[in-house]
Each structure stands twice: as C-alpha cells, then as structure tokens.
Amino acid sequence: MIYLDNAATTLMKPPQVAEAMLDALRSCANPGRSGHAAARKAGETVYRTREAAASFFGLEPEQVCFTSNATEGLNIALRSLVQRGDRVVISGLEHNAVTRTLAGLGAEPTVVTAPLFDREGWLSAFEKVLSSQTRAVVCLHVSNVFGCVLPIQEIGALCAEREIPFVVDASQSAGLLPVRPSLWNAAFVAMPGHKGLLGPQGTGLLLCRQTAQPLRFGGTGSHSADQAMPEELPERIEAGTLNVPGIAGLGAGIRFLAQQSQDALQKNESRLLQRAVQGLERLAFPVFTGPGQVGVLSFRVPGMDCEQGAEAFARRGIALRAGLHCAPLAHRTGGTLSEGTIRLSLSSLSRPADVEGFLRAALELRRRQS
Length: 370
Fold this sequence. Notes:
41% of the residues lie in helices and 14% in strands. By secondary structure, it is α/β, with parallel strands linked by helices. The chain has 2 domains: 15-258, Type I PLP-dependent aspartate aminotransferase-like (Major domain) (Aspartate Aminotransferase, domain 2), CATH 3.40.640; 261-369, Aspartate Aminotransferase, domain 1 (Alpha-Beta Complex), CATH 3.90.1150. The strands form 3 sheets. Strands 2-8-7-6-5-3-4 form a 7-stranded mixed sheet, with helices on both faces. The longest helix has 21 residues, at 37-57. The relative contact order is 0.17.
C-alpha cells in the first residue's frame, strides 16, 4: 500500500516512537500519584515530553498541556473564551472541530472568506470584520482540504492590536511549518499528536498563553483536599490518568523532528506535492492548487464522483480520502461542497516513490477511461 492519507493520521512513524511506547507500557505506572520507581519514571517520561514540546514551540513547559487530540484542545480553548451569543470570527476553511463546538456553545460565528490561495485577500478580509464586539478569532494555519496556508502571524497582529483573543488550529502544520504561539500573539494553539508530530493516535497538545477552563474534572495528583480544580496549568486541564505510553511516543516523535531541518522537511514535501500536481494536470485531472500550498492536495477524477475515484485508487493500492473531510465550510468556500474532492496528503516521511506510484495508478485509471 502507498499511504497518502496523512492529513487524517500519519501512518508511518520513526521506529523510536513505538519503542518509547512499549517501554512505557512495560515500566511506567501512574505519574504524580505515588513515590515508587514506576510512578517516578512515568512522571519523568511525561515531563520530558512536555519539555521537548516546549522547546520545539518556544514556550515554557507549564504552557504545554496534553489532550487526546486537537478536537479536545479546541473545545477547551473555545469553552475558555466563548459564551452563548458571543460574536466569534472564523475563517471560511474551519474544520467541524471548530464549527460544531461554536454551535454547541451557542456562539454567533462571522465567517471570513477569500480566494483559497490569496494570503493578502485573507488578511484584508479579517481586518474588515474585526471590531470591539468580536469575542475571539479562530483560524486554522493550513487547510486540511486544500493545503493553503493562511497568514497567521499577521492575523494575530490584528487581534493583538484590538485585544481580541486568538485561537489557532495547527492540526495540519505542527511538525512541518514553524508554529510559534508567542510570535502569533495566540492565546491558544491546538494540535494533534498523530499527524505531523509523528506520535500515536489518542494524543494532542494545547499550547496555552493564558489560563484555560477545564473540560473534565477529577484527580490531578495535587491539591487533593480541594474540590475545585487547581488554578495552575497544566494540572488545571489534565484531570485523570494521563496516556503515558501515548505521551512517551509523542515525545519520541517530537525529539525526532527536533533533530531534523524543518526547512528541509518542508522543501521535500513541497517538491513531492508539486510533482503530484504536475502529473495530475498532465493527465487532465481537475486539481485545486495554488501558491504557498503545503502537504495537502484536492483533486477529482474526470467522469467519477469522489468516492468512486478514491475506491478506484484504493483497488490499485493507493490510500487517499474522499468526501468533505469533516470540513464542509472549507468546501463551501472552495466551491466543492456539492461533490467533495479526493485528497492526497503527504507527511515528512513520504518518499518520491510514493508519488510516482500514485501517478502510475492515475495514468492507468485514465487509460481505462479512454
């Protein structure tokens, strides 16, 4: 199988990720609950990952909070900032993790739209709608449907000038592009562990530059006599036993990335993406592409709906994803809501051979249609 569905989850991991998880399964108990050797090792394992993430993202360890995925992190961030009736400005590319959470909170989202790959257009559109009535701004860094990169630092500067809290969804960028919450003036940045950070499923990070409200309540191993959750991060939002094997694997993934050149990883992924674009365009497949695109490519197979097209590739050993990708708002903005798209998504471990195999399958599919 050629795996090109990394925007959903990165399947191929560095071997040290599984090794770290297995070691934690065998030797780590419950962190912060006891003083014996297995509990101490668990605590050390968790803190090493917290330190590695803090260093990687330019924060202090206590600003790094563990979640089960990006969706949980976004829920915590939005529930910490937004109440019923609040006006929240969001990009027209947001995932259901944002839009459904805001709907559940009873917020009133204002959707900002612009041409997909027009960074200046996005910035101008945000600037026009921000006002004193804006309670928060939520924006993804990279679209999980089209791979376009939004001007996060500039949008963050607009929010800072107006003292509006800024929440960033870095689900498709963390591990590939520089993620700098302080530089972005972001109150919160949420991300999964199982995508670009090369960790296992069931892990995520919420980077906090302000206090957060707990989504779950329970034991933290500290302040046990109090019935209120601790005020201090990260304990305030880490109730219950942590996923120590998952956190160990996530730490291994982050340390692996820290030893690589992020610029080189990005350039490699960009080269592979452009090769895929050129090959599909040569075969006359409709492709949604533009400047500054990274990692993610939407396309269609002529004469097939997207589900049929993805199934045809799957029969040829190519793993893609079809449909609306949990982001109907992005498809509405891109004009693809009625049909959806097929999505090809790369990782930092993708190889030229993966793209060449995909293009051979595309050529075979095209010839069968002739």
